[in-house]
Every structure is written in C-alpha cells, then in structure tokens.
Amino acid sequence: MKLSRPVSWFLLAFGVWSWFIWITFVKNLWQDGSGLAFDDAGDPTGYFWVHLLLAITSFLLGTGVGAVGFRGVRALRGELAAESSDQSRNEPGDEHVVQRQ
Fold it and tell me: Are 59 and 23 spatial neighbours (Cβ–Cβ below 8 Å)?
C-alpha cells in the first residue's frame, strides 16, 4: 500500500500527539489528589486501573499509527531522492528518450 504525503504526515503527527497526550494523562492520573484514582489509604481504585489501561492501549495504538506514518514519510523521501538522482543522470535534451527497466 502506498500512502500519500498528507496522510503519512497526519499519521506521524497523530503518533506524536498520542505520546504527548497520554504520557501527560498518566502523570496527572498518578498525581491525582481528588480521591478518584487513590482511596484514603493510598491504594489505587478501579478508576485508576481502568484509566491506566485506557492510556496504555491508546499510547500503543498511537505508537503503531505513528510508526506507519513515519514509514510512509520515509518511503516518500526515498522516492524523491531516487527521482532526483534519475533526473540528474539524464543529460539536457534527453527528456524525450524513454528508458525501459
């Protein structure tokens, strides 16, 4: 499958955004003082475990999506480099020549 440039960059940005958002969320969850995440004895509550699982799952999915986007961006850059090297090998005036591979 070949991804377009905008889609590749969107997926990469989504992955970076996911890292930022979910790591920040887990830090805030860990430091929660409202009584939702930890009971009076300091033990984690069901709220903590559910949201920690949600954050880890979302972080992993965001990492996977970002990796797909990164591979798409990297592949597009490789294609551009190959095209520019092919064009630099042709001498001026040879544009009409069709090369077969």
Answer: yes
